[in-house]
Amino acid sequence: MAKILVVEDDESNRDMICRRLVRAGYEVVSADDGAEGVRLVGEARPDLVLMDLALGAMDGWEATRLIRSDPTTSATPVIVLTVHALESDRRRSFEAGCNDFETKPIELHRLLGKIQRQLSAAT
Predict the structure, then answer these.
(1) What is the separation of C-alpha 101 from the centre of its chain, rounded to a whole number of angstroms?
(2) Side-chain half-sphere exposure of 24, counting CA atoms within 13 A
(3) What CA–CA distances, in Å, run from 17 to 31, 64, 66, 111?
(4) Which residues, at least 6 apart from 72, have a Cβ–Cβ distance to it below 8 Å?
(5) Could you tell me if 82 and 9 are in contact, meaning their C-beta atoms sit under 8 angstroms apart?
(6) Count of domains forming the chain
(7) Nearest C-alpha neighbor of 55 from the set 14, 92, 96, 10
(8) Which whole-number Å values give the CA distances from 19 to 15, 28, 95, 118, in the listed order?
(9) What CATH number does the domain containing 38 carry?
(10) For residue 50, which phi and psi values (nearest 5 degrees)?
(11) How far apart are CA 84 and CA 66, in angstroms?
């Protein structure tokens, strides 16, 4: 069973995403800010991270850069989940090291496909 870390500051969004992923057969851990997300990538060793961008003091871009800068976590796939749908946001996400990009509201079937592709590519 693959483990997914959900980094989302909105409690209702985080709960909804986590419940859907558990129903889809994933083990899920969660963080409510960027700093906790970076810490949990190192401690929980998830197979993939779903990263919100608007997280407060440390946004998802900075958290992803920190994940990428650590040799022990640098290969962990990161998929952005965001309401920021502009092409500049997408480009900035890939420049920060994200592997894929999904806009909110989340279309679960499409997100699960992206998760599977990233997990397959990582093995």
Answers:
(1) 9
(2) 19
(3) 12, 19, 23, 10
(4) 42
(5) no
(6) 1
(7) 10
(8) 6, 9, 30, 20
(9) 3.40.50.2300
(10) -105, 115
(11) 21
Task: Give the amino acid at 61.
Answer: W
* Contact by Cβ (8 Å): 9, 36: no
Q: How far apart are CA 53 and CA 58, in angstroms?
A: 9
Residues across the chain? 123
Q: Which tokens belong to 97?
A: 């090291």
Range of the domain at 105: 3-122
From first to last of its 123 residues, what are the pLDDT tens digits of the chain?
999 999 999 999 999 999 999 999 999 999 999 999 999 999 999 999 999 998 888 999 999 999 999 999 999 999 999 887 788 888 989 999 999 999 999 999 999 999 999 999 987
Q: Which residue is associated with the tokens 């990582």?
A: 122
DSSP result, 37-75: HHHHHHHH--SEEEEES--SSS-HHHHHHHHHHSTTTTT
